[in-house]
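Backbone-to-sequence.
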């Protein structure tokens, strides 16, 4: 979805202005999180690195853009969407400067789609489905964050380059249809991968996830069952 430097100047400025408040709010959220909970720096770094690696995968797509996983759903689940607005901004800036992946003039548009719209949709899915099961909620959070990013990118491109015959709607259908060929399978794969990564994080950073409110502490009954299981295992040795 990394749009290159192809947007008309007014579109580029408009998306930058729209994204700026979210990025500033996200930077404050990250600063507050690090100041109040320094131990969260490792997990913040992991969320940013996951987004950087997945979104750096570049598959050819519509002219002027590309197709790839986004990796923002995991961070939205762990730290909520405002934090991801800032982390994704840093990721997109480095990718534009170091990898020529996305343009500098279109940075605001790319931040809005991948760092704002995607994480908020993914987080909404997480909140709606976490009662069904953690893995199900994580899967849909990651997959829908991915797909929402491309829906917004399709709208941004359609707004900038409306179809001569179909107008904005026709251009949106054209861009979204082309993205869908690669993006639906990628979103499913990203959802499954994110579930696996989340399980690893849950095993190694369970206290941190409990503090963040991502998972709940074991109930007294579960603690008793765990202790009983440990006692039984010890007795059998």
């Amino acid at each position: 979805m990394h749009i290159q430097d192809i947007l008309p100047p007014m579109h580029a400025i408009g998306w930058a202005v729209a994204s700026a408040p979210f990025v500033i709010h996200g930077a404050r959220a990250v600063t507050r999180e690090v100041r109040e909970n320094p131990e969260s720096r490792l997990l913040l770094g992991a969320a940013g690195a996951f987004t950087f690696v997945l979104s750096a995968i570049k598959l050819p797509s519509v002219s002027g853009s590309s197709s790839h996983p986004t990796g923002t759903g995991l961070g939205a689940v762990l730290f909520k969407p405002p934090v991801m607005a800032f982390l994704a901004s840093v990721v997109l800036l480095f990718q534009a400067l170091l990898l020529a992946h996305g343009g500098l003039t279109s940075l605001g548009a790319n931040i809005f789609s991948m760092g704002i719209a995607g994480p908020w949709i993914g987080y909404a899915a997480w909140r709606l489905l976490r009662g069904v099961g953690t893995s199900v909620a994580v899967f849909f959070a990651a997959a829908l964050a991915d797909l929402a990013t491309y829906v917004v990118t399709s709208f941004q491109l359609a707004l900038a380059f409306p179809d001569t015959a179909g107008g904005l709607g026709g251009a949106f259908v054209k861009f979204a249809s082309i993205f869908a060929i690669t993006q639906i399978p990628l979103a499913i794969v990203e959802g499954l991968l994110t579930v696996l990564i989340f399980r690893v994080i849950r095993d190694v950073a369970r206290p941190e996830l409990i503090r963040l409110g991502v998972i709940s502490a074991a109930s007294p009954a579960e603690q008793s069952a765990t202790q009983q299981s440990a006692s039984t295992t010890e007795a059998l040795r």
